[in-house]
C-alpha cells in the first residue's frame, strides 16, 4: 500500500474537470454621456459559491481555512467571492458540496479563480503502519483555477462549485512526509430557486446556532462553511422536531440543521428546520467512529470532522472526541434526503448496530471536558470527553468501483469495492460494501452506475447482521 500512497502532484496549471457551464447573459446597465462620463456599474446576479472534494481514501479528516477565492474577469478586474476567512472540513463533503458564501456577483465574463487556504489540520491512516497520525500545515497555500471555457455571469441566479481533488492535492512519500499542493476544478450551474440540490444553489443539513429571530426569519451562525446566513420561512417550511414545531418556538442559542434554497433575490428560503436538541450551553461533535468499548457499547471515540458549541473549534478537525454512552441515550437516524422505503433489510441504528466507520453526530448538554492542545491549535491526544444526550447516524461518502449492478424496478443494488489505501477498509476490515440505489436516489455527473465505473456513493451506512450496507441519497461520478 505504500506505493499506492505516493500520490501524484501536478506540475503545471490546474485543469478544470469537465469545463464550466455557460450561463446566458442578461440584464442591462445605464450609461452616461459627456466627456466626464464614468463606466456604468455592472448589474449583479445572486451566486452561491460552494466547495466539495474528490476523495483521498487514506485521509480521515482534513480541516482548513479558505482565506479567499478571487475571480478575475476578462477585463482584468477582480472579485473576492469568499471575502471572510471560512473554515472547512473536506472529508465530510465527499459526494456533495457545502456553501462557502453567497453574494451579488457583477455580471460579465471571468477567466480564472485564485484560491488561498491555510491552517491545515489533518488526520490520516499511515499506509505503512496502519496507525492513525495527525499533521498540521500553516500555509498559506495558493491554487490558480483557469476557467475553460470562460465563465459567463448573466441575469439568472447561479451556483459556482469548486471541487478539491484531495488525492492529487495531498501526498505522502515512503518516509511518511506529507505535503499539500491544492488542486481544484470548478463548474457552474443554474440555481432554479426550487429544491435543495447543493450543486444548484441548495443547502442541505447546514448546522449552526440561531443568533437572531425576527417574525418569520432567523439568522444562523455556523462553524464550517458559510459563516452567517439569514433564512426566510413560509407555510411550506417543515419543522419536524418535537422541540421546534414552528417559528414561535425558535429562540437564540438553539442549534438547528437547515435545508434551504437560494431565491432569485439572493435570499434563502428554508425548506426544513430541525432542532438538534441542544441549547446555548451544549455542543455537538460529528465524525467517524474509530473505536467502541463494551458490548453493547458504553463508550465511543470519534475522529472529528464537524461540530459546534462549547469546546469545538475549526482547528479541532482531525482530533478525537471520547463519548460516554449512558444506557438510556437515544439513537436516531438523520433520514432527511435518504429514501429508506422497501429495502430488503430493516435499516436500524442503535447500540447493537453502532459500528466502526459510521459517521455519527453526538450531542451533549454541556461543553467538551479536558483535552490537550498541540501545535497549530489542533488537539493531539484528544479534544475532550462528553456524556452523550443523543447519537444520530449521519450521511457519509464512500468511493470505489462498481460491480454486480442489479436492477429491480425503481431500485438497484451493487457492490462497491474500496481502494487498497482506504482508511475505512483498514479501520473496519471491510474491503467491499453493498450499496442500495433507491427511487429517491439522485445522480450527479452520471445517469446510473455501470460495472467497472469509479463512483462516490453518499448516504446512510448501516451495519446489518455484520455487513455494511449503504443506502445512497446521491451517487456521483468520480
UniProtKB/TrEMBL annotation:
Domain DUF5666 span(s) in chain numbering: 208-274
PROSITE patterns: PROKAR_LIPOPROTEIN
Entry-linked Pfam families: DUF4382 (PF14321), DUF5666 (PF18914)
Every DUF4382 domain range: 47-182
InterPro entries linked to this entry: DUF4382, DUF5666
Record protein name field: DUF4382 domain-containing protein
